[in-house]
């Protein structure tokens, strides 16, 4: 931005399809209480620009208030001209601008040329008095804007979105209790699974112990130990008989029984060891 006159006049130069343009911003004595005057040099053919080169129909200028951001207004105007591929220079005419308020007649003619633009079509139907009322009354301007087709469509879309959001929220709330019940059910099932896991661990430990206890090799070892125990018992009985602590009939009864058990266990041990040896040789 170039300063032409401090706090009075500035210019912004930028390239467009029609060539390099200069946007001149004139700040009146009552600025910011009244909107600035903006002119484009050289003059161009555009819906926002009147026949003198003054920008009169830019939305930022038409809706200008003391709270408007002038930098933002200038940026929007610049971007509009930079992106407009149909922009052309105006033929003939005076490039010099004019001061004061917007010329209603020029504005009306410019608006009429925009009858194909949906956003400005409604303005073309208004009288000069109605245009002045819109320019001077913010409430009337807001009401007019709210009735524009694009605004109505936007409001309708917002209402539809709100309705969808409310429906979604109600749907989520209706699912809250079933989800809570499912969580309780899952919690109970997890407790049951935990109990089963604990029981499985205990049974697995018991199974390992029993497997070790009743394995063929373990049975063979136990038979061998039991046979040795019977042999020791037989020797003890024989010593008692030799020492005269046991009569002959009782000795024969007890001794024969002990030896029989010992022989039986040794026979079972030998048979089991033979079977284990055969299984081992067979690759089991």
TrEMBL record:
**Name of the protein in its database record:** VPS37 C-terminal domain-containing protein
Which species does the entry assign this protein to? Acyrthosiphon pisum
GO terms classed as biological process: protein targeting to membrane; protein targeting to vacuole; ubiquitin-dependent protein catabolic process via the multivesicular body sorting pathway
Where is the protein found, in the record's own terms?
Answer: Late endosome membrane
**Gene3D superfamilies in alphabetical order:** Helix hairpin bin
Function in brief? Component of the ESCRT-I complex, a regulator of vesicular trafficking process. Required for the sorting of endocytic ubiquitinated cargos into multivesicular bodies. May be involved in cell growth and differentiation.
InterPro entries the record matches: ESCRT_assembly_dom (IPR037202), Helix_hairpin_bin_sf (IPR029012), Mod_r (IPR009851), UBQ-conjugating_enzyme/RWD (IPR016135)
Predominant subcellular localization, coarse grouping: membrane
Q: Name one GO cellular component term.
A: ESCRT I complex
* Pfam families given in the database record: Mod_r
What is the topology of this protein in the membrane according to its UniProt annotation?
Answer: Peripheral membrane protein
PANTHER family cross-referenced by the UniProt entry: EG:115C2.5 PROTEIN, VACUOLAR PROTEIN SORTING-ASSOCIATED PROTEIN 37
**Which of UniProt's keywords are assigned here?**
Endosome, Protein transport, Transport
Give the matching PROSITE patterns: VPS37_C (PS51314)
By sequence similarity, the record places it as follows:
Belongs to the VPS37 family.
Record bears the keyword S-adenosyl-L-methionine = no
The VPS37 C-terminal domain is annotated at 197-284
